[in-house]
Amino acid sequence: MSAYRAVFRCIAGCGEEYPLDEVVYECRKCGNLLEVHHDLDPLRRKSAKEWRKLFDSRIGTTTWPYGSGIWSKKEWVVPNIDNDHIVSMFEGNTNLFWAKRFGAMFGMDDLWIKMCGNSHTGSFKDLGMTVLVSVVNGMIQRGRNIKAVACASTGDTSAALAAFAAHAGIPSIVFLPSNKISTAQLVQPVANGSIVLSLDTNFDGCMRVVREITKDNTIYLANSMNSLRIEGQKTISIEMVQQFNWEVPDVVIIPGGNLGNVSALGNGFTMMHDLGLIKRKPRIVLAQAQNANPLYLSYLNGFREFKPITPKKTLATAIQIGNPVSVQKAVRILKEFDGIVEQASEDELANAAALADRTGTYSCPHTGVALAVLIKLIEKGTLSKKDRTIVISTAHGLKFSEFKIGYHEGTLAGVDCKYANKPINLPPDMDKIKEVLEREFQIRR
């Protein structure tokens, strides 16, 4: 048994704690959410230098399970899990894309995009799901009666759950809002053998259903109100700092829907700071779609109150959430990290994604929200062009090809598709082809 210790602890400070292998999602004493709390004293027995050296030594290895970007930080995630119970596809270790040409458009030469969508199921949700499914797998292997793992989803969570559960041989159930996710997202849990229930409601309605279903403790809840997910996602922070030779970026911009990722990344930076691996924290910016912006509205009143909303339809379907589960955690992190919340309209997010694509990316609409917010804050002078800034790309653009097609065909409602690029239909006539190419060369200079 490892000397390191982690437990679930109530975020409200009432003192309640539970083992990580207990089926519990909210504090039984006061009803607040839980978070994974690590006993830092044993971790401090290694120096910051020793931790950096250990984590660096595991990159790119095939030594089980440390080749994973998440499990390479096992001692900081779930220290006491048996390695044989870990369910991993060597997720994580995603690249930082130097957005050189895109940044230059706005006078920035140190702009990066963390490509979290370059993962097994095409989104950052893999990073948390490996942790959650691994813990469940360990519980089942020790004889706990768990029949299935379930989630509500707008697409990416269901894909990650389906894949990792299939890899472990554990049944999965996903609740999806009818006609509100892309075909590419819908087909992933179908292909991986999940029980897929398409409900005539929105994400918040699906969330209500899954919370009711998982009151039966034989069906385990896999949404981000389960803080095991946050533990995997917090490694994004550690990984980014590690990729810059343990230097901290100045600004991190995160698209936000259910708000688990902002609390996850904040936790990662805080843990590195508390253990001496870094000396300062970055500023965190939370980017919301204007049509699903409850945290932005709360930010405008200084977070004095938060009111759930009924979200309107947005191209950024994965963050079309009006009552985010992790709002308390997110507000705490934003206050600690000199946080900003900004919104992007449908026109702004679609055109930001398309403009970035012209410099070599293939941005999902949620990354488009973050890029649009970056542009707004740079143009306002709220953020400095000189800062090292990282935009979190949450999913691969290929999962949203319908969004791309609609943009370039000019059929997205409410969007002036400034950078649409339609194919040019021509006969196989060399003179005509040369004439058109010359014209296009002039236009695109």
Mind explaining what this structure looks like?
The chain is of the alpha/beta class. The chain has a domain at 96-121 and 230-409: Rossmann fold (3-Layer(aba) Sandwich). The chain has 17 helices and 13 strands. Strands 4-5-13-10-11-12 form a six-stranded mixed sheet, sandwiched between helices. It has a four-stranded parallel sheet with strand order 8-7-6-9, with helices on both faces. Strands 2-1-3 form a three-stranded antiparallel sheet. β6, α6 (156-168) and β7 form a beta-alpha-beta unit. The chain starts with 5 loop residues before the first strand and ends with a helix. The model has no long low-confidence stretch (mean pLDDT 95).
Q: What is the gist of this entry?
A:
The chain is α/β, with parallel strands linked by helices and 445 residues long. It has 17 helices and 13 strands.
